[in-house]
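HUMAN: Can I see a protein plus its fold?

ASSISTANT:
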Amino acid sequence: MGAREKKKQELQDKIVAAAKELFLSKDFDEVTMSQIAKQAGVGLGTAYNYYESKEELFLIAGGTSFLFGNGMVLEESLTNLADLSRSIAKGMQPMTDVSRDMWKTALSSLTKAAEKKPRLFLELVAIDQDFLSSIETVLSEFQNKQIIKSLVDIKSLMGLIYSTLFTNFLMFIYDEEQTIADFEAKIEASLACLFQGIEV
């Protein structure tokens, strides 16, 4: 990496770190791009040069963690796929702590940003894979213990799990009548269908 690219990356890292700090300490609506720039020690124009909006920064700073990750954990000592499904549904609960309107704004911003920065979505998905990695680890352990069939391709299964969780989460965001309990129940039911036939 050249000196110019390194400086650019350092600036971006400072802006993202400042945004994360502010989003953790204040409500989303209270945070402004001016505050983020000031916290990062950069000019407002510089912040906007790299990031189009605070919504985009919210996503990049790990706000979505579907970005799966921060605050999302599986229970320990899982012994079967039904337990895993319940634990995944419960583990997604922190995502419901952010208001639906905030998610809609952030996802709309992501769509607009992705038009100019096509790789943005792929980069966001790679930000924090802790939660998904923990699911993959459990499935691999299940396979080693012969709880699930040895022919199951765990990597492909993880792609289906990701799609299932993402789809259910989008439905939760846009279906105002869906409760958190409904959301968790739908995830469990979807995963039960997905896991059907892979248990030994």
Q: What stands out?
A: The chain has a mean pLDDT of 85.
